[in-house]
Amino acid sequence: MINVQHFFHESTSTLSYVVWAESGDAVVIDSALDYNADANSYTTEYADSIVEFCKEYQLRVHLILETHIHADHLTAGFYLKEKLNASTAIGECMENAPYDIKYADGDVLQAGELAITAVHTPGHTPCDFVFKVDNMVFTGDTIFMPDFGTGRCDFPNGSADALYTSITEKLYSLPDDTVIYVGHDYQPNSRELQFKTTVQEQKNHNIHVRHDTSREDFVKFRTQRDATLQEPKLLHQSIQFNSTSNI
């Protein structure tokens, strides 16, 4: 049995996950730090809640996984590496970033008895990945809850066309009952937090790309929508920190 515990970082709407096997072998996916823009500094309350959880359940965290270089929050990966005696990991296309492990499409990352398959899903950025664990997939910024849609594609080398391919050919090809855990929830219309859905629900109800949405329609919509979006508040701090582990 594979277990999942979510953590919600309210200031950036980020969802982080601890995933573990019955053996206690575990990974952390998409962590975050608390950033104070006025002081240009960070604190670790959110990350420490993950550390405390892992210690409480006596988990052996092997890997701190990133789905991509985040542009809206600072990763706690480098902090958790030291606190949990784990290794950091990111996609191989971020070859110059200071992570311990660089994974490629189709790689199986072994964390003790826990096996995680990395699947390349470019679009939001050229180096986005999702992680498949048993009948679950952790999608980062590739796709969100059905009522919020998909990730933006206007970062350097992002591509709405590539995102359409990633979603329709990689995610939607999984069994309908595959459970999807999203990387953000922006709680549209002030609804309660949601972070868990299925491939079937996405195919039937995602407001941006359903099973019958054409490539042309999606690319047109996504491109027009992205042109209206402001850049993330922590864009510059996040990219610098997450790429170099140094503000």
Describe this structure in words.
There is one protein chain. With 247 residues, the protein is an alpha/beta fold. It has one domain: Metallo-beta-lactamase, Chain A. It contains six helices and 14 strands. A six-stranded mixed beta sheet has the order 1-2-3-6-7-8, covered by helices on one side. A six-stranded mixed beta sheet has the order 9-10-11-12-13-14. Strands 4-5 form a two-stranded antiparallel sheet. Strand 9 and strand 10 (114-120) form a beta hairpin. The model has no long low-confidence stretch (mean pLDDT 96).
Quickly list its features.
six-stranded mixed beta sheet; 6 helices; alpha/beta; Metallo-beta-lactamase, Chain A; 25% helix; 247 residues
Summarize this structure briefly.
This protein is of the alpha/beta class. It is 25% helix and 27% strand. The chain is built from 6 helices and 14 strands.
Distance between the termini: 39 Å
Output the strand order for the largest sheet. 1-2-3-6-7-8
What is the fourth-level CATH superfamily? Ribonuclease Z/Hydroxyacylglutathione hydrolase-like
CATH T-level fold name: Metallo-beta-lactamase, Chain A
Taken together, the total number of domains comes to: 1
- Helix content, binned percent: 10-25%
Task: Profile the largest sheet.
Answer: 6 strands, mixed
Give the oligomeric state: single chain
Structural class: alpha/beta
Indicate the low-confidence ranges by residue numbers: none
> SSE string, helix = H, strand = E?
EEEEEHEHEEEEEEHEEHHH
What percent strand?
A: 25-35%
Count of helical stretches: 6
* Extended strand count: 14
CATH architecture: 4-Layer Sandwich
Instruction: Please tell me the overall pLDDT.
Output: 96
Instruction: Report the top-level CATH class.
Output: Alpha Beta
User: Any idea what the shape is?
Assistant: globular
Supply Rg. 17 Å
